[in-house]
Design a protein that fits this description.
The protein is an alpha/beta fold. It is built from 15 helices and 12 strands.
């Protein structure tokens, strides 16, 4: 049985949760006697598909920093993906994001994964001309099977779209709790830091987090913040830190997976203040790296983390600051949540997640 994946997230992400999700499925298929797969990709810098980079790759990486060249590569990869769709030499098509370029070409079953419904739930945080919600709806309407990555995401999908519930399967993200973690130190890293991972815009609630840190910074002069992911600090980010006199206390670093594990392992606390998520894969990453977590009190986070983390009221800066301080002053609390996290991690085995996905493919043919 042959599965076709397209290029989208492998073109736009070198690191990232969605491309890693699909790479995990592809890697399992490559070990299987029952399945084969193909990826509609001419060239990619994605770490999960290609861990070794040649001198040519490094040269191309410099060129691809140009937005015009990056758009051209995206277009070339998309044309190649659509060519493979038109060839019809596969059994199931599973695109890696919501661009609907293939809809007039596809003749085989379509599986789409709904990662979250944040655009639909919190439209005020997004550009009005962004086509993502429209593209996602086209996928949902055409799909023969829909994977929702949490019960919260399924509930949101049914609320915002007239989706056929019988087509929706909830398949959680997974992680191998027993595989060894690789660690690599991050240069010039200050001790005693709170970790923030991912994008910083809008619904991610980053500015409330920085306000809470400002409140704590005067009382705890040795406390710092390390940011990773989400791209380098933007102008608005830098201006905010300058106004709050936090420029020397907040550092952004770009890291590999091994360095990210190091950041989790050595953080005082990982804070994930987002107003809404579809799952929250960094929660599992932090659990495995033995890092205590503070989450905003949202339905999805409650579903995934249960009692293995501390929660704060999502819009309450004082509550967030108070909960952070409780971890700074009580080391035994950190240990309690680390132990709970390791236990909760075992409820998300990667092999079960992949098996459910492959079984879903089988059901369509």
């Amino acid at each position: 049985m042959k599965i076709l994946f397209d290029h989208q997230k492998f073109t736009t992400q070198r690191y990232g949760g969605i491309s890693r999700y699909f790479a995990n499925i592809i890697q399992q298929i490559e070990k299987s006697d029952e399945f084969s797969c193909e990826v509609g990709l001419l060239y990619s810098q994605n770490h999960y598909l290609k861990t070794e980079f040649s001198s040519t790759d490094k040269f191309l990486a410099k060129i691809l920093k140009s937005e015009r060249v990056a758009r051209k590569l995206y277009s070339l990869n998309e044309r190649y993906s659509n060519r493979l769709v038109a060839k019809n030499d596969f059994d199931v098509f599973h695109p890696t994001y919501y661009d609907p370029y293939f809809l007039d070409t596809l003749k085989k079953p379509l599986v789409t994964t709904i990662h979250d419904m944040t655009y639909e739930k919190l439209p005020e945080y997004f550009w009005a001309q962004d086509p993502l919600s429209y593209h996602k709806r086209l996928h949902v309407e055409r799909a023969d099977a829909i994977i929702a990555i949490s019960e919260t995401t399924k509930s949101d999908l049914l609320k915002f779209h007239d989706a056929d519930e019988s087509k929706i399967s909830v398949i959680y993200h997974g992680i191998d709790p027993d595989s060894p973690l690789g660690f690599r130190p991050v240069p010039d890293l200050r001790e005693n830091y709170i970790l923030y991972v991912g994008d910083r815009g809008g619904y991610k609630n980053f500015y409330l987090f920085i306000d809470a840190f400002k409140r704590l910074s005067e009382k705890y002069p040795e406390l710092n913040v390390v940011l990773t992911g989400g791209g380098s600090l933007g102008i608005a980010d830098r201006e905010l830190l300058l106004r709050l006199k936090l420029t020397d206390r907040v550092k952004h670093v770009n890291v590999t997976d091994e360095q990210l594990n190091f950041l989790y392992q050595n953080a005082v606390l990982f804070v994930y203040p987002s107003l809404h998520e579809g799952f929250g894969l960094p929660i599992l990453e932090a659990f495995k790296a033995r890092c205590p977590i503070l989450l905003s009190d949202t339905p999805c986070f409650r579903e995934i983390a249960v009692d293995a983390v501390e929660y704060f009221s999502a819009h309450d800066m004082e509550d967030m600051a108070g909960k952070i301080e409780s971890f700074l002053t009580d080391s035994s609390k950190r240990n309690v949540y680390i132990d709970r996290g390791l236990k909760r991690l075992r409820d998300f085995p990667l092999d079960i997640s992949i098996k459910k996905t492959l079984d879903l493919y089988k059901s369509l043919v």
